[in-house]
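Quick question, first post here. What does this chain look like in 3D?
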Amino acid sequence: MKLSYELLDRIAAEHGSTFYLLDSSRFRQNFEALSAAFRSYYPSTRVAYSYKTNYVPRFCQIIDQLGGFAEVVSSMELTLARRIGVPDEKIFFNGPYKELAYVKSLLEGGGTVNVDSWAELCAIRRMTDGIHGAPFKLGLRCNFDVQDGVLSRLGFDVHGAAFMEAISLIDANPSLALAGLQCHFATRSLACWENRTKGMIGVIDRLFRNRVASFEFVSLGGGMYGRMPPEMMAQFPVPIPEFDDYAVAAAKPFAEFLGGLGKNPSPVLMVEPGTALVADAMRFVCAVHSIKDVRGQSIVTLSGSSYNINPTPNRKNVPITVFSATEGEHLVERANFAGYTCIEGDYLYKGYTGRLSVGDYVVFDDVGSYSVVMKPPFILPNVAILEPDPDGVSYRLIKRRETYEDVFQSYAFA
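> Answer (accepted):
Ran it through. Tokens below.
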């Protein structure tokens, strides 16, 4: 993506001094690279994009165009997938809470629901009992220890009675079919991926050895690091895996296990990435509003906020670039870039040294993951999203800047 002060200033004049830039080319490259890595070990791998990570319709449409699936966790995301034309059979409905009317609608359309609990399964059975035709496709979310120090709350304990009862209930009901198994663990380490793969293979080997060939899918969920520059990698306490590393940890042993069983046909291996595809496919732009010194600390206040780029407590300094009309008039050392809010901890970047002027633009890379979708209407509404053309001359509007009316139209004032 080719950027310049002139392009950023032109966008700011029309859409405000704070905005996101979308890079669809990088998003496509990430999808293709991750798919190729996994398919090199297990050709029947498919990618289901995690809508919750960033549900900008432009990204979701690209996934559908590239042959990917939709992984949704709410009725809102399901409605979005359908709105952009994703057929129900390419939608996987996950999550611990699902509105039953949407569950029924998706099942009737040929989609797949990965059941999270015994209560949810019983509700689905009551809802579908007696309906004739092709059985509705269900998956069971599997929960086991991946030795990451986290007690996951998602899915069935695979060593518990409820899991065995769930299998029996589905098998005994002609309206339901066990189409596959799914798991999801948030930890992005390579060790977690090795352990979740071993765990899923263990479940299949113990309970489904003679029927895995009839499964449509086995999903290992999401939770992968995306590609990042060396200066950002250096801020993590562990090495950052590449896509091929994840594939070796997951797709390779899965293929070897099924090969040892001699199963043919084999189920599709699903992965459900979000961050790995979208993190570096968006940038955040905001303007320098003021530069001051507070008891020896340089504070640069920006027109954006950490709430625009996912304000997690352990936030890393993402790569930044400063665009100036002229050489900056202030030389700042170890400056902290603060947001527009009144929250004391609202910092977007810490420790910047260089020249700056009021009116400069600061561009933050790697902000595509859990940024747009988690920005609250706190103090100011959300900002515009633009997609510059590769030449860096023109751009297209992806989402307009939100207004007062957008935030308050659902309130009653009487």
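Residues 213 and 264 are 6 Å apart (CA to CA).
The chain has two domains: 5-21+281-408, 24-279.
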